[in-house]
User: Fold Transcription factor GAMYB from Cajanus cajan.
Amino acid sequence: MSSMTSGGDTRKISKGRQSSSLVEEDGDGENVGEGPLKKGPWTSAEDAILIEYVKKHGQGNWNAVQKYSGLARCGKSCRLRWANHLRPDLKKGAFTAEEESRIIELHSKMGNKWARMAAELPGRTDNEIKNYWNTRIKRMQRAGLPIYPDEVYQRIHNANQESQNVGTLTNEASQHDDLSQTDNFDIQDGEFKNFKFCPGLSHGPSIFDMPQSSLFEQSSDTSHTYNILFPTMHPSKRRRESEILYNSFDSCTSNAVPVLDPYGNYNCERFSDHNSHAALNGNASSSGPIFGSMKLELPSLQYPETQHGSWGMYTPTSPLPSLESVDTLIQSPLVEPILSDPVSPQSCGLLEAIVYNSNTLKGSRNDSLLPETTDTPYQAINNSILNLPFKTEWDEQEEPNSSLGQSAASVLTDYTPVSISSVDGPQSVETTQDSSGKKENLNQIEFTRPDALLDLGWFGNNTEYGSDQSVLKDALSALLGEDFQGEQ
DNA sequence: AAAGAAATCAACCGCATCTTC
DNA sequence: CGAAGATGCGGTTGATTTCTT
Assistant:
């Protein structure tokens, strides 16, 4: 994959980040002894010192390296260097095809859990895997190819169906840790045997190769419905590939569907008001406005941390999120990660529904945007593919009370689809009332756990999907009051 | 051949968690 | 039990190489 080598004497000495605050030596880099810690690329001499230290003292206690060896490196740097380059059990060189397919498999199950993935790939480091993945998705994105092979989607779908068959959702199930959850979708190693990673070669037709009618037909096949496709980006303007990737997942697992613009860019036509719904439409169009950056972060079930501290305006002291904006509400912390409920189909698409309804109510007077009747999200997707307006099922539900008797807050926490991960900094969760603020806010929603989206029971037999849409309606009613009721 | 873009990779940073005292 | 230190993790950055025009 790369002609560059890592570690050892073949390493490019001049490479690496420079530090203005700490000592950066040149040449031999024999920076040993007391004093400021060195940063930047490691030299062979430093490597030798570190190796010698590990031979003597073993791994660990990295902060003692400087003390015992005189190496002017911080413990973290020593650990990283050892783990990523000096460990004797490291594999060098490019990933093999088997490793690549394994990474894809693991990522489909774990998301960006690089360290855990590295544990499954002997001799490989989390950094390697991370770099590989980032490179890969960028490449796939550019090629307009799906990030995962069909097999992955199929396995997840199958596993999901199996889990649904096993039994009903229990609270215990929802409290499983992430590993047990991901096990629900465990993809047998052997099932990947047919998958060959072919850089630059799609495993299937690109969305750009297919007419919309084909998409429609494909959508009728549950095994392909969620074949997430990357947008083809205009080469001159690209957002981070991960943003696009996960926005794509977002869109494709919601009622929104990727539709190409005349430039072959990827948009979600459900939200024809792109400016207001950019966050949800997987807006990777280079021809359209690119709103504030959307950071990639995994909103996985694995990440309870996404529930804390990053949700900005919503505070636990408030029984309900602010009524000022549904946008705020959308960013409220989840009571539990969505994938803690791996078989909960009713979770699907509610976020999009909320956002959609919110935006419809708050700003849009364009009736053409109102959806037509759709019996299932499945059909919604089909309709969207055909660029037809549709109406979500909950729009028709008239039940005054949630069947679960939940408050709006609980509804919106329990039913928010896919944990929406934290955003960067407090500014990211600011919610403004003007349209631009709303737009930016939406853009800050992050979806980085494709399997989470894939596992929401969106695979055809999602019969429960519409049954609890009244819950959403209740929640919106509670939050928006008459405005919402008036728009019914 | 030159320039710019893209790819690659090592390393840093901040934060979370674990461990020790 | 809390503080401090150690460790681990994931995201990001920036230098260099490679590719493309």
